[in-house]
């Protein structure tokens, strides 16, 4: 009511959210770590000291450089076939991040569109999509994935497909709920009164308003997808050798856990660091963008 | 009245009891850590070594082998070959089954009829029928004597009999075929106490045991009260259990853990030459593997010694051909495909195989490390070889089928030869159309020699035929010849009078505890 407040330039919600995110130190550090992982993955061919598939049995289980018997040419040591751990970790990051990005990207698009259709069109479209979502949610994820992988055979393409089959469900559910609420709002009513078509209302009016929860869900799920890829690769259903994947590296090192800790532990730590960073960053995103948390 | 302190102590005791159950010092009990559970306890209804190892402690055979693989009578008192197609066994008297029934010649006839007659197991045929080759009929000459009648001469019958355990005819009538899966009745040194599927098979000493083969010292009932076979699929869990004293014998000790076990105060490593021949089947029907120069080149290209010394910690014997050096009719004069990269490259060039040609080695997860090592070593020729990991249930059948393996290149696999006789390995994996002939190898002369040897009663002539066949196989190189791994066991030092056997049996009858 006072003049000074009225004269303040309006601050966009995005700007507000980003400011809040920037104030969250944990989330910032996590985001920086994620960026570091992404950079390392992108630059792997440039920065990896060796070919990740270059085996030499005479370097078998060579310890990391700081341990006795180590060598700075192989700073993180070698695996059971004498392949450089550091190079394999870098290339493994590519697999993890690529699978996660592909799965989440495609699944979010499918899920968002399906959720919009279900929430706005209602009727049999809603029934069909919602029942499908319920059915897919009923399967334990890992069992579902293992079954499909066993049928389709191992490999990078199949792992992405298998994960998308179920992953779209999560964004679909969120979008459907948000759409159900949005379709009763005044702005949608207004658009309808103006004679806008169904597609226009769904994509131009409702979609922009339901996108931010999708972003939050997608980042949360990304951590989960990375773990799933690692699990499937651990079980030998994922990426085929000699392509390194963190999951299969953990699996390879199992035999040597007692006498060569680094073979399993290092990729395990990499998974931990990446997943933890993503979770912390997405927590930060949610805190920053959820208006309900900042009504005061 | 209990004091507060004693109440406290006893409640701690109650809480801790389940955890301690396995760690308590135990009087006379031997625990074996197995990578696999038994599939069944019916000795006629499986084709699985672990299952047989477990069952063999509860059930005896007509014949058995000692630790040096000598074939000796067990339930039989003596045996002899009557003619080329007839063997006679004299049955020992006074043997009782765990149920108390007496063992007679009729039980032996029943056991072998159940194994070889079509549909004898409630309409099904025993999966072990193939292990008894041409055994046609078992007849009782009198109540102490049985005769085994063969449709063709089959000199390795005695080598195959230790694999078959005698069942109680009346028990099968009592519990039915289905009941035999869980309630067998044998005459072995231990009787079944409980089978917790996926967890453990628990056996108790059978006090009325007749003592087993008289040709192996220390006859009489078992020296221990209980024998437990615990299922521990994870290598690291088995090793940890051995070092912690929770189990006394573990099989399939990884070579990488040998030093760790040797370093411990209460356990040691024991090794024995196995009976399993490892090889890489080359798809002989597919180009370029249909060219013998390519197959020889791959043999020259692989540095076996590096894999044996580095990955297998020296626990394998390199093979030049198919047979184990310990087997009957082993041919020691076969030339070797020495490791020679230049020669391999020259042969490949001669056969017109371009540098950078891609090849895939199929295998299962258990052999992943070896497959990757072989792929890396073969790639040094300039070929691009990689490993592909499959589910065992998919891979085996695929390579057994000529049509389905048409597009495949190589298959890292192995074949067990428990009989230590060429008949038990060369016929199935190298004879045209053999059930394990994944390479699709077909050589008329080898087929002729194997067929002739199968019916040859003269052991000297038989051996010569097999030696000739081995030489042809090595020359034709249907496989990349690999090695014969040693079986490695971790054994608690308190376990005495036990050593591992080449046939991978873990026989606890004569074990004593220090």
Automatic annotation (TrEMBL), chain A:
The chain crosses the membrane at residues 27-48, 95-121, 141-165, 210-240, 260-282. PROSITE patterns: ABC_TM1. One of its GO terms (cellular component) is plasma membrane. It is a multi-pass membrane protein. GO terms for biological process: peptide transport; protein transport; transmembrane transport. It is found in: Cell membrane. Residues 93-282 form the ABC transmembrane type-1 domain. Keywords: Cell membrane, Membrane, Peptide transport, Protein transport, Transmembrane, Transmembrane helix, Transport. Pfam families: BPD_transp_1, OppC_N. Belongs to the binding-protein-dependent transport system permease family. This is Peptide ABC transporter permease. It comes from Neoroseomonas lacus.
């Amino acid at each position: 009511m006072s003049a000074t407040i009225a004269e303040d330039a309006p601050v966009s919600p995005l700007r507000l959210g980003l400011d809040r995110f920037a104030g969250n130190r944990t989330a910032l550090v996590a985001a920086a770590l994620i960026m570091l992982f992404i950079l390392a993955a992108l630059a792997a061919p440039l920065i990896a000291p060796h070919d990740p598939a270059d085996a030499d049995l005479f370097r078998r289980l060579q310890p990391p450089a700081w341990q006795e018997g180590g060598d700075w040419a192989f700073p993180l040591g070698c695996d059971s076939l004498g392949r450089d751990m550091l190079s394999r970790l870098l290339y493994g990051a590519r697999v993890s991040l690529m699978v996660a990005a592909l799965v989440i990207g495609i699944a979010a698009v499918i899920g968002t569109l399906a959720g919009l259709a279900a929430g706005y069109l209602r009727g049999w479209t809603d029934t069909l999509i919602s029942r499908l979502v319920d059915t897919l949610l009923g399967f334990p994820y890992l069992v579902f994935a293992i079954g499909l992988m066993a049928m389709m055979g191992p490999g990078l393409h199949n792992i992405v497909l298998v994960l998308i089959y179920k992953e779209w469900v999560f964004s679909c559910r969120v979008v459907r709920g948000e759409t159900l609420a949005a379709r009763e709002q005044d702005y949608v009513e207004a658009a309808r009164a103006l004679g806008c078509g169904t597609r226009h209302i769904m994509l131009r009016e409702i979609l922009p308003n339901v996108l931010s929860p999708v972003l939050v869900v997608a980042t949360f799920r990304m951590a989960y997808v990375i773990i799933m890829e690692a699990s499937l690769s651990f079980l030998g259903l994922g990426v085929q050798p000699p392509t390194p994947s963190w999951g299969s590296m953990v699996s390879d090192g199992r035999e040597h856990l007692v006498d060569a800790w680094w073979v399993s532990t290092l990729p395990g730590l990499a998974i931990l660091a990446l997943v933890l960073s993503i979770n912390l960053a997405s927590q930060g995103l949610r805190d920053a963008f959820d208006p309900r948390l900042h009504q005061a | 009245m209990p004091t507060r302190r004693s109440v406290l102590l006893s409640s701690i005791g109650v809480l801790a009891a389940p955890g301690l159950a396995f760690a308590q010092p135990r009087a006379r009990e031997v625990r074996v850590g197995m990578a696999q559970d038994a599939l069944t306890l019916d000795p006629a209804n499986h084709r699985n070594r672990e299952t047989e190892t477990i069952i063999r402690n509860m059930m005896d055979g007509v014949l058995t082998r000692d630790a040096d693989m000598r074939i000796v009578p067990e339930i039989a008192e003596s045996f002899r070959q009557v003619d080329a197609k007839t063997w006679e066994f004299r049955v020992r008297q006074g043997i009782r089954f765990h149920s108390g029934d007496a063992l007679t010649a009729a039980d032996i006839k029943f056991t072998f009829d159940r194994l070889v007659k079509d549909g004898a197991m409630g309409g099904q045929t025993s999966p072990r029928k193939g292990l008894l080759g041409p055994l046609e009929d078992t007849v009782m000459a009198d109540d102490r004597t049985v005769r085994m009648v063969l449709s063709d001469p089959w000199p390795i019958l005695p080598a195959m009999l230790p694999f078959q355990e005698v069942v109680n005819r009346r028990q099968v009538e009592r519990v039915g075929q289905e009941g035999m899966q869980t309630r067998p009745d044998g005459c072995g040194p231990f009787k079944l106490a409980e089978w917790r599927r996926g967890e453990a098979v628990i056996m108790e000493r059978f006090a009325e045991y007749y003592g087993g083969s008289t040709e192996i010292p220390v006859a009489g009932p078992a020296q221990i009260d209980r024998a437990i076979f615990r299922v521990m699929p994870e290598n690291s869990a088995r090793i940890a259990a051995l070092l912690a004293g929770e189990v006394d014998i573990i099989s399939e000790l990884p070579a990488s853990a040998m030093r760790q076990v040797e370093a411990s105060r209460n356990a040691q490593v024991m090794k024995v030459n196995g009976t399993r021949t490892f090889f890489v089947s080359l798809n002989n029907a597919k180009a370029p593997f249909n060219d013998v120069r390519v197959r020889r080149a791959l043999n020259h290209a692989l540095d076996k010694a590096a894999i044996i010394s580095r990955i297998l910690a020296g626990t394998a014997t390199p093979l030049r051909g198919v047979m184990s050096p310990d087997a009957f009719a082993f041919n020691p004069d076969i030339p070797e495909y020495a490791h020679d990269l230049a020669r391999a490259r020259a042969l490949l060039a001669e056969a017109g195989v371009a540098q950078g040609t891609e090849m895939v080695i199929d295998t299962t997860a258990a052999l992943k490390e070896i497959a990757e090592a072989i792929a890396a070593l073969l790639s040094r020729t300039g070929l691009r070889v990689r490993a592909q990991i499959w589910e065992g249930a998919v891979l085996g059948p695929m390579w057994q089928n000529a049509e389905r393996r048409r597009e495949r290149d190589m298959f890292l696999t192995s074949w067990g030869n428990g009989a230590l006789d060429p008949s038990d390995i060369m016929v199935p994996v190298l004879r045209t159309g053999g059930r394990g002939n994944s390479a699709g190898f077909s050589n008329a002369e080898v087929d002729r020699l194997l067929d002739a040897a199968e019916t040859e009663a003269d052991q000297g002539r038989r051996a010569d035929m097999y030696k000739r066949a081995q030489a042809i196989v090595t020359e034709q190189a249907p496989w990349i010849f690999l090695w014969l791994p040693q079986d490695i066991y971790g054994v608690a030092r308190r376990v005495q009078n036990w050593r591992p056997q080449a046939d991978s049996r873990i026989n606890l009858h004569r074990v004593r505890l220090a």
